[in-house]
């Protein structure tokens, strides 16, 4: 099998993850209690859903994912939500205080206290894989956890799993929708070399999607997408 491990970091990463795993379950007919009545294979088989789900001895299909946040509020919603029986409790990791939209707190202080636990949970998932292909990383760079802890976690992953692919699904702050005045500063904090190990979806596809969203929320003339200068003018002028 060819497995992928999803890592959801911070509030944005977890909330995006909730939507993703709900869709995965609907697509493969997996129930909120992690049962899959339509699965008739023995010992997991080679079905497509085994890329994202691990089958237990009891026949449950548990996501190959880790959710981590420095404060418990958002993860508590997962623990008490509709899909609370889908995830293994060890895969839901939360601290006691958030990073307050501060990159340094997420990377150097509070995040540093929890990163080893995160890596231990990821290592357990990786050990259960027969053909680990890589990691899907969901986070936002406008918050202290997504940017700071996300960067720290990538640094460690690049050491332990340097040969594995790491695909990033990153949410960037917008001047139209902002929850904190320090989001731009946090987002543009000096990036560590670990960010260069991430791969993102096709840049042209991402740029098209971002510009489409921007045009819908502003009266800016739609650019021609012929150069990055057009993108710069759209968002900064």
TrEMBL record:
SUPFAM superfamilies: Tubulin nucleotide-binding domain-like
Keyword Nucleotide-binding: yes
Biological process according to GO: microtubule-based process
Keywords: GTP-binding, Hydrolase, Magnesium, Microtubule, Nucleotide-binding
Domain Tubulin/FtsZ GTPase: 49-224
Signal peptide per UniProt: none
GO cellular component, one term: microtubule
Recorded catalytic activity of this chain's protein: GTP + H2O = GDP + phosphate + H(+)
MF GO annotations: GTP binding; hydrolase activity; structural constituent of cytoskeleton
SMART domains for this protein: Tubulin
Key word Magnesium present: yes
Sequence similarity: Belongs to the tubulin family.
Subunit structure: Dimer of alpha and beta chains. A typical microtubule is a hollow water-filled tube with an outer diameter of 25 nm and an inner diameter of 15 nM. Alpha-beta heterodimers associate head-to-tail to form protofilaments running lengthwise along the microtubule wall with the beta-tubulin subunit facing the microtubule plus end conferring a structural polarity. Microtubules usually have 13 protofilaments but different protofilament numbers can be found in some organisms and specialized cells.
Function comment: Tubulin is the major constituent of microtubules, a cylinder consisting of laterally associated linear protofilaments composed of alpha- and beta-tubulin heterodimers. Microtubules grow by the addition of GTP-tubulin dimers to the microtubule end, where a stabilizing cap forms. Below the cap, tubulin dimers are in GDP-bound state, owing to GTPase activity of alpha-tubulin.
Name of the molecule in the record: Tubulin alpha chain
Organism field: Iris pallida
């Amino acid at each position: 099998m060819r497995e992928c491990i999803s890592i959801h970091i911070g509030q944005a990463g977890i909330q995006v993850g909730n939507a993703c795993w709900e869709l995965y379950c609907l697509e493969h007919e997996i129930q909120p209690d992690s049962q899959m009545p339509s699965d008739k294979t023995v010992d997991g088989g080679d079905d497509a859903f085994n890329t994202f789900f691990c089958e237990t001895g009891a026949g449950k299909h548990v996501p190959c994912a880790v959710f981590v946040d420095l404060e418990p509020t958002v993860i508590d919603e997962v623990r008490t939500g509709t899909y609370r029986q889908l995830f293994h409790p060890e895969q839901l990791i939360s601290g006691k205080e958030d990073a307050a939209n501060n990159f340094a707190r997420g990377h150097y202080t509070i995040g540093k206290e929890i990163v080893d636990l995160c890596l231990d949970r990821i290592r357990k998932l990786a050990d259960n894989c027969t053909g680990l292909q890589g990691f899907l990383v969901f986070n936002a760079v406008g918050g202290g956890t997504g940017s700071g802890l996300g960067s720290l976690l990538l640094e460690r992953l690049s050491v332990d799993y340097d040969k594995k692919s790491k695909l990033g699904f990153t949410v960037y702050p917008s001047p139209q929708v902002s929850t904190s005045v320090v989001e731009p500063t946090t987002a543009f904090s000096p990036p560590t070399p670990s960010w260069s190990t991430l791969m993102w979806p096709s840049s042209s596809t991402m740029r098209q999607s971002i510009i489409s969203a921007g045009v819908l929320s502003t009266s800016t003339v739609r650019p021609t997408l012929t150069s990055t200068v057009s993108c710069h003018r759209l968002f900064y002028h």
